[in-house]
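Meet my pick.
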Amino acid sequence: MSREPFTLIQATYEQLRPLLNHLPITSSSPPEVKHKLLQLLQHLRAASEDRYSQQSQTEAEDPTTAASLRYTAFRMIEAASEPKLPLTLTLRLLELACATVTSLVEAKETEDTSGLLTRAADLAQRVSAATLAPDSIQAKQRSGVLIKFYVTRVDSIMAEDENARLALSFMKRALELELEGHFSQLDYLALAARCWSIGDKLRKQSQAPGPSFDEGGSAHDDAVEWLSTGMKIIEHMENRFQNPGYGGVMELKLALLRSLARAYLSKSATDPTALAQAETTLKILASLVVDRDPSAEFDIKLLQLRVLKQQDAAEGDIRALLGEIWRCMVWDEESAEEMLAQIHGLGSHPDLVSSSLVCLIHEALKTADGHAPVERILLMILVTARHMMETRAPAAYQMALQALDLVSSQEEFEARYNTHSTAEETVIWDIADKQVRNNRYEQAAQWYELATHPAFAKFGSKNFSQCRRRAALAYINAGDYEAAARLIALCPAGEAATQYLRFLVAINSGSVKAAIEAVHLMIECADVQGKQLILMASVAYEKGAEATLMKVLSIVLEALDGSDIIWETHIERITLIRCLIRLTLLEIEKAEEKETLLGTLVGYFATGEPAAAFATSLTKYSYNTGIRAALEWGSQAAPDLFDCAAQLMIAYEDLTQVDLDPELELQKGSAMFACLCGKLFACRDLEDGPDRSDLLANLATYLPSCRGTLMGVNHAITKQGAVEDMLRALDIYEVEVMCEMGEWDSLLESIKASDNAIESRLATRPGAHSHPSHTLESIADVLASYPKCPTSTTYLVLEMILTSFSLASSGDVIRYARWLRAILLNLLHRGGEEDADRALAYLTKGAEVLRSTGGKAAYPADEAQWLLAQAWNKGLELFSSGKVDSARTWSEVAISISSSLPNGGKQKDQLYAQYQYLLERSSAR
């Protein structure tokens, strides 16, 4: 309905209220005030008429507007009244004042109540002072109005500051009016009802934590006094009216007694004497409700139970009272909750708690009305069982089992809420899980199995298989494999978890055949997970069942590589590979014939791409095994193991890419170098054929990768010398591979590239200690072992060697002498004119070296004599051929060499004399 009339009334009231100060209106009142007041009153009347014409029968009164209207109306009536009113009008005005205060209190508009109450008190005093005939109508009216006044004072006090004792004093003053003899039954009932409502409110407040409870229990006392006053009022009414003509008297009396008993019980916490008063009150209450109301009787019995508990009564007395409670039990949710709370409070009698809970669910199942709270009761039984497990585990299990047996045996019972089923199963699982954590596996198995009780079928449970499997696992841990097998047989065979448990039973029982069968069946399950297969392998390993373990691992590996199983991550795969590697290594240690196992091991290392988290450990396995294979076992698989280690490092770099170990590149290069060395050494032992050709081709491809990895090693690595040694070896091995493959055309370019690379490394790597001549010397040695190597290539290498020496040390001088002989032999052997010129140039250089300070000290004497002999003999040969000019050059070089020899002066003189003779003879011709 539209609120417009209310809005208009409210607005008119706001304008009218200030004008009330001008009342009463007299001839001297300002005309504008008179006009304004008359106008507003007309508006108010019109708005009120509109409001009542539109009002619906079902629409509630707006409390704020109604209170404002009543307040305004009262003030207007008061203003329009004479100062000294007749008693009848005074009574009427007092009644209006009380109604207005009540309206303001209900609307919570109490700011104007104090003035009204003051006015009402003045009116009440006038009324009380009036002298009236006892049986007169006005005397009866006065009594009724004064009752309303005192009740109004009670309501206003309780609404404003809840001063219960002050309010009670006004209630007692109202009751004193009874002496005048004008109280009606309605007056008694109204006062008693008001006492009950206030007393019960105070009782409830006293049970809540707060100041009212803490201050010496005053709230309990106030509640008791109010409720006792209400009972006195009822007693007075019953004494005066033998046959009350109104209904509801007994109901009010019972309500007062129930609240009073509860108030005494609450008060007994601080006042022990109140317990006896509560017991007395309950006896009175019980005598009134016999065969009257089962619900009321049930409430009384519950209160009596509270009394017995607070009296620490004997268990037999409490048990007897509980038997009476079962007979009058009211089966609704609220009553069941109250009953559960009372049973829970019997903690000092633990056996009584468990038996009472079982009795409660038994009684509930007897009647259809009791089925509603059954699930809640069962949940409380299981929660109680959980608390009992620490001290009375067998009793807890028996209590839960009895309750579930009762539920399942009641065919008419049907569960209403599946949520309770979930909660009940959760409690059972919680109990069982705790037993597992405490290694009480047999108890855990019992509780897990209890979760499969037929009673849970009534609740729609679908977790029976999972519960049976958990129970079976607990039995396995307890060593009861027969009980575990019994439960597993009831679980779906097509679920992987079932087959896993079958495997555990088999392997713990020593049945290899059954264990392997379980693995095969698990592979066929649609829900199989990689981690389950890995767990099987781990269990077999821990049990030392080697035959089973090897079979399991082979099945798992086959599933990884060839089945449709979806593997969540690489972790399961790499874990399996690690297990296989470790087991194979153990077998290798024990086996006499290791090659087959090592070949298998290489296959494991090369299987798939590892996850970054495990790549480092696999790398160490592979690298260390390669070292042992090479040093201890002399295995041909060592190079492949090193290659696997290198490939694992490459995969790790690709996966990680950040925060890499600075030495990882060195480790990878070392592994690749070891692989290449092993393959090359193996190639040397192979006969010519396709296998050897393929291996050489692979080595030729692998060499650049190995060199590139080593070149990428950080210069700051302290093992730079080792890196340089490996690079030098690679340069030499590359020459060997090219010679083996007959790559003569590209061989020289490769050697030059190696020489340039060495020079570059010397310039950029402070740790590089190898001189180019070292590598070139080794290359020259390699070339010397291949007769098919072009001499031009060999000569150029020798030239590169000679030009690379710095001659800064005695070692360089000695090696220079050696390689000078080699190149001179090569040139002199070829015998060409150009070759002779080159040989002469090298001889001249050798003579210069001999004359140098370092040469005199370090040049080997035999090499110097050899040079002298070669130069002199060549000169003699040329003199014989008539090539005097060339002969003179060679001879002079020889004489120069002789002068640099120790004690070579005599020899020089002899050579010079012979040289002069040859010159003279040549001139004579």
